[in-house]
């Protein structure tokens, strides 16, 4: 298991993309639209992984709850205050096996696609985040797909550390062998990503 990508969300994509570009000092290297989930995003390389800024696509019509809790009124209200680190995604070799090996209610594997890409992702039927986004969503990439961190242009940005505060024992057990992920004891839950950027080190929190 390894970090696949960080999920930042915004009330609308243009606001989120501009905010992230100002924050990082680098323009996005890619973008996509997810018809099944009614969302669209912008992508930045982080070297061995990547980050996305995702938002609800106002033109989309969906028949199921969106992923990452994006239909949750509380999440929507928080995003109206500004973009934020919402959750993260961990890559596995066998999604079915990984879901069967954890007691966390991560949902079931769903095939998702956008132009040129397809993958299997753990999604709850209600689309909700697990443990306020501290538990990762799990992703399995097919062998015939060139994953985003390999196709995106080098941004000069790297992820140094992802800190999970207040994670349950189940989350700690799931992520204990992932390089660059650190769980810390805390009375409150939070995510924090430490990045090295052309503008120097920065820390972005949930």
Give helix % range: 10-25%
What is the H-and-E element order?
EHEEEHEHEEEHEHEEE
Query: How many DSSP-defined strands?
Result: 12
Q: Provide the low-confidence segments as ranges.
A: none
Largest sheet: 8 strands, mixed
Measured between the Cα atoms of the first and last residue, the distance is 22 Å
- What is the C-alpha radius of gyration, as a whole number of Å? 16 Å
SS-derived structural category = alpha+beta
Strand arrangement in the largest pleated sheet: 2-3-4-1-5-8-7-6
The coarse overall form would be globular
- SS element count, helices: 5
Taken as a percent bin, the fraction of beta residues is: 35-45%
Oligomer: single chain
Q: What value does the average pLDDT take?
A: 95
Brief characterization of the structure:
By secondary structure, the chain is of the alpha+beta class. Helices cover 17% and strands 38% of the residues. The strands form 2 sheets. Strands 2-3-4-1-5-8-7-6 form an 8-stranded mixed beta sheet. Strands 10-9-11-12 form a 4-stranded mixed beta sheet, with no helix packed on it.
Keywords:
206 residues; alpha+beta; eight-stranded mixed sheet; four-stranded mixed sheet
Notes on the structure:
Helix content is 17%, strand content 38%. The strands form 2 sheets. It has an 8-stranded mixed beta sheet. A 4-stranded mixed beta sheet has the order 10-9-11-12, with no helix packed on it. It has helices at 13-24, 73-79, 95-100, 148-151, 169-175; strands spanning 2-9, 30-34, 39-45, 50-56, 84-91, 108-114, 117-123, 137-140, 158-165, 181-184, 190-197, 200-205. The protein starts with a strand and ends with a strand. The protein is an alpha+beta fold.
């Amino acid at each position: 298991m390894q970090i696949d990508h960080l999920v930042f969300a915004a009330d609308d994509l243009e606001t989120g993309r501009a905010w992230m570009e100002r924050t990082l000092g680098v323009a996005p290297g890619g973008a996509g639209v997810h018809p099944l989930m009614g969302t669209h995003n912008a992508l930045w390389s982080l070297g061995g992984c990547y980050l996305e800024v995702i938002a609800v696509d106002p033109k989309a019509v969906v028949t199921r709850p969106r992923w990452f809790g994006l239909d949750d009124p509380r999440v929507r209200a928080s995003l109206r205050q500004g973009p934020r680190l919402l959750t993260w995604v961990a890559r596995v070799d066998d999604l079915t096996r990984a879901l069967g090996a954890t007691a966390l209610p991560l949902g079931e594997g769903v095939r998702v696609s956008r132009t040129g890409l397809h993958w299997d992702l753990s999604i709850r039927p209600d689309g909700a985040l697990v443990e306020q986004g501290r538990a990762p969503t799990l992703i399995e990439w097919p062998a015939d797909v060139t994953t985003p961190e390999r196709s995106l242009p080098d941004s000069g940005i790297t992820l140094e550390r992802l800190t999970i505060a207040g994670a349950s024992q189940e989350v700690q057990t799931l992520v204990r062998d992932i390089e660059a992920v650190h769980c810390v004891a805390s009375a409150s839950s939070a995510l924090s990503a430490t990045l090295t950027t052309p503008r120097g080190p920065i820390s972005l929190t949930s």
